Amino acid sequence: MLRLLFSLPFLASVLASAADPASAPKWKKLLPETPAGVSLKTHVVAVYPEHTVELVLYIPDGAGPYPTILDIHGGGWKSRQVESDRPMMERLAARGYVTALVSYRLSTEAPYPAAIHDCKSAMRCLRAHASEWKIDPDRIGCMGGSAGGHLSGLLGMTSELPEFEGPGPHREFSSAVRACIVMAATQDLVAANKGKTNEGAVLFFGGSCDEKPQTYAQASPITHVRAGVPPTIFIEGEKDTLKVGRAEMQEKLKALGIETTVHTLKNAPHPFWMSDPWCAETVDIADAFFKKHLAK
After folding, report:
1. Of 3.40.50.1820, 3.40.640.10, 3.20.20.370, 3.40.50.720, which CATH number belongs to 34-293?
2. Structure pTM?
3. Pick from 131, 84, 288, 105: which is nearest to 204 by CA?
4. Cα within 13 Å of Cα(208), Cβ side
5. What CA–CA distance (Å, rounded) separates 34 from 13?
6. For 161-218, how does the pLDDT look when each residue is reduced to its tens digit (9 = 90+)?
């Protein structure tokens, strides 16, 4: 049986394009391939009975230190899609960033807040090994798509909130984020799930929103928008569904004078960052944003 690499919205978009080839965007599936001038490394962040949290790192061969981007993969919190995000992070590494992808604990392995705790541990780990990995610890941002976009937004909005750190290693280091990108992700889980029973959310949180409203609120990035959170931009696909809470979160950020904008990619389906031409467009947007906010 062929492994399902793309979401159902993506496959629906491809089938619709096949029915009307004249108007269809030409897309190309991407596979990982470490670029010239970049070294690939893996590192164990933390070992739990249910899963070993790891970082996959791309480190430019120059002297550094480099600005750094942590990627948080999607998959509905229950599928591990590190491989699908690697081409995007390889391209960013080739542009002069250390890039890292974290394999956090999934909802089938440990419920919330394990995933955000692992993302926080990954950020602290990057700073703990900054000298070894040619990282500038003052210039670290994050990005992620779908479920990873939710976690990227949560990681950014909970910077400097100790109650989200969790029991992972390197607690002497900060998990703060200097710039954040959210791709195709809901930011208000209460508004999105109230009165509903979403199987993925129930598995992730251990209950429905009506049963655990405080947990859903705590896990919503929009809840934690406040002065001092990092500049945050959103990238979305034109063919994707509405991402609940994104517009409202942007209004809160703007009211605080925090930079935010939304980029909508033409004809792009939900996992747009996994294939071209949209991966290339995403990398251009991310590079411009991180160059601005992770500058020395």
Report:
1. 3.40.50.1820
2. 0.91
3. 105
4. 9
5. 29
6. 999 999 999 999 999 999 999 999 999 999 999 999 889 999 999 999 999 999 999 9
